[in-house]
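To close the section, here is one more complete example, presented without commentary so you can practise reading it yourself. The ligand is FE2/S2 (inorganic) cluster.
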Amino acid sequence: MDNSTIVCRCEEINKDEIITAIQLGAETFDDVKRLTRCGMGPCQSKICSNLVREIIHEQTGISLCQLKPSRMRAPLRLIRMKTLADHRTANKVASVLQDSEEGGV
Ligand code: FES
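Output:
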């Protein structure tokens, strides 16, 4: 992979930009994310996170098993806005959350 290779397709971040972020002190995927927006696209880093971790490993020597995975935020997978907007679904989610708060789940 040369330095012009796009690593994060969603945000069009290339390897050179990732390396620059690492040279500025980034040591984790989330550090790179904050400096470049890499991982903030529609796939929420499902495509680019492992590539970025490999580049961090390559540049810093930090072993892959020591590199934390990216922090995931809900929703953990793509869902349609219609699903979120559906009142029946919203009511189910609200009741599950209420049950978990009451210790039911
Ligand atoms: S490829 Fe990086 S956020 Fe989708």
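Once you have examined the tokens, check your reading against these statements. The longest strand covers residues 6-8. The two ends are 47 Å apart (CA to CA).
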